[in-house]
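Below is a filled-in request sheet from our internal design queue. Each sheet records the structural input a requester submitted and the sequence that came back. We keep these sheets so that new team members can see what a complete request looks like end to end.

REQUESTER: design group, bay 2
PRIORITY: normal
MODE: inverse folding
CHAIN LENGTH: 66
BACKBONE (tokenized):
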């Protein structure tokens, strides 16, 4: 998966979080920080993307999935 695609996925995720949660919800800030950490780790060559994540299943380490 290209870096540009990762960046687009992160941006879309952040827009979705921003749209669906109140501005003063601190959980959103933590989830956005986790997305940026994921992007940074991925850009550094670590953490390969699994097919499970690409199929849309939540990853508990990324966005607090259940």
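RETURNED SEQUENCE:
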């Amino acid at each position: 998966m290209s870096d540009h695609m990762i960046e687009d996925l992160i941006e879309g995720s952040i827009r979705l979080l921003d749209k669906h949660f109140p501005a003063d919800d601190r959980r959103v800030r933590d989830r956005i920080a986790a997305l940026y950490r994921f992007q940074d780790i991925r850009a550094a060559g670590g953490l390969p993307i699994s097919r499970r994540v690409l199929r849309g299943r939540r990853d508990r380490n990324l966005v607090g999935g259940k």
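SHEET NOTES:
- The CA atoms of residues 40 and 46 lie 9 Å apart.
- The chain has a mean pLDDT of 76.
FILED BY: M.R.
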